[in-house]
Amino acid sequence: MTKCFNYQIEQMLDKQGIAKRIAKEIKDGYYVNLGIGIPTLVANYIPETMDVVLQSENGLLGMGPFPFEGEEDADLINAGKQTITMLPGSATFDSAMSFGMIRARKVNLTILGAMEVSENGDIANWKIPGKMVKGMGGAMDLVASAENIIVAMQHVNKAGESKLLPQCSLPLTGVHCVKKIVTELGVFDVLPEGGFKLLERAPGVTIEEIKSATAGKLIVEGEIPEIIL
Amino acid sequence: MNKVVTDADEAIRDIEDGMTLMLGGFGLCGLPENCIAALVKKGVKQLTCISNNAGVDDFGIGLMLKQRQVKKMISSYVGENAEFERQLLSGELEVDLIPQGTLATRCMAAGYGMPAIFTPAGVGTEVAIGKEVRNFNGKDYLMEMAFDADFAIVKAWKGDTMGNLIYKSTARNFNPVMAMAGKITIAEVEELVEAGELEPDHIHTPGIYVHRIFQGKDYEKRIEHRTVRSKE
Questions:
Q1: Is A57 a catalytic residue?
Q2: Residue of B122, B157, B168 lying closest to A144 (CB–CB)
Q3: Mind listing the pLDDT tens digit for each residue in B18-72?
Q4: Phi-psi region of A45 (alpha: psi -120 to 50; beta: other; left: phi over 0)
């Protein structure tokens, strides 16, 4: 069972902060798939000097910002069903090809949200039995194929329970796939041999606070720097 | 090779209770609105619908759900439909939730004449229960079967009298792969032109896959989440 955590930290990252930190993981020349929620915000923090192409799994490479008011096109949406625009050099394609390029590892980085992540890299984000059944959408395809998966999420759920667990309690989306997690408290590598390795902590957040909010195995080695946004 | 029918009612005339239908679209984008309206009017029941989403409460497949015309949905994401969720949790509706790429590729396999595909999506999850797992080059894959649908119903931007289709932007989504996969494929288009008027190099779906085509009318093209930015 997961423990309950109550913590009050004033300087932890907000959603924009999480997105901003994740944007630093994106490299020049990357094709990136952004999931719904916090991951969508990452697009706002990709430096303009960088050549990055966003993939939307409903069939678009080259996703641009939201349209100006009055210029919305019902035929042009992203995977979150929001109206969007296409940047110069965009390409559209069907759903089979979209997941073909994902399966074939042409997409360099996948950023998605999660309800739970386990210390061996399992992820759960599509179903709460008896309560919420929205479906997995493209998440199972993405996590099964992507080489590089970063999870953007809150460290604890609304009930105050840790989302970084020894093992997931909810139905899995994928196994041994998450490589990195960014929460409002810190940045973590998920080690191949198991465990959340703390890399950076949010400004003002102590290691003790992170420890008490992490139910899974937390590995802390040496000095842990603060996140620089 | 004239595939033209007058309207949606004629196109769906022989769809009967208990059949399996594929319906193109992603969310409310690229939906065969005219055919859905005709199916609602006709009142056929006990349908199995293969479609990425289930519409919203008052649009798309949601309209068919409301009338209890659907026995089973095969979809990847159904989050925007309260009536769907209610029928599912109460057990009135049978639902097979499958990964989006698996859904698309099972359509594609049918259209390419392949009985099955292997995909890593769902390995180690409840999606894998009862499925054959094969290891290729050290990685596990699930065997997923090609779909078998009585009808595929798709929406395209332009089409010609021979059934050749061109889609627009992300309204393409599942439409081309479903168009290839139906025993009978119905295409509704925003603009129907004479054969020869479309540039052959621009065709997305060759007419050989399409059995019936008509020019749709009164497209509502509803937007699910209208997101804009201000001009500064």
A1: yes
A2: B122
A3: 999 999 999 999 999 999 999 999 999 999 999 999 999 899 999 999 999 999 9
A4: alpha
Helix (H, G, I), strand (E, B) or coil at A183: coil
Q: Look at the block and give the residue holding tokens 């697009």.
A: A43
Whether pTM > 0.80 for this model: the answer is: yes
Asked whether residue B37 is domain-assigned, the answer is: yes
Scanning B189-208 for CB atoms below 8 A from A yields: 204
**Cα Rg for chain A, rounded, in angstroms?**
18
CATH number at residue B84: 3.40.1080.10
Q: Is A44 on the interface with B (CB under 8 A)?
A: no
8 A C-beta contact, residue A138 and residue A79: yes
User: Could you report the per-residue pLDDT of B143-177, keeping only the tens digit for each?
Assistant: 999 999 999 999 999 999 999 999 999 999 999 99
- Residue at B32 is within a domain: yes
β strands within chain B, DSSP E = 20-23, 47-50, 70-75, 94-97, 116-119, 133-136, 139-145, 149-160, 165-166, 182-193, 212-215
ipTM score for this prediction: 0.96
3-state secondary structure of B38: helix
Looking at the domain assignment, is residue B160 inside a domain?
A: yes
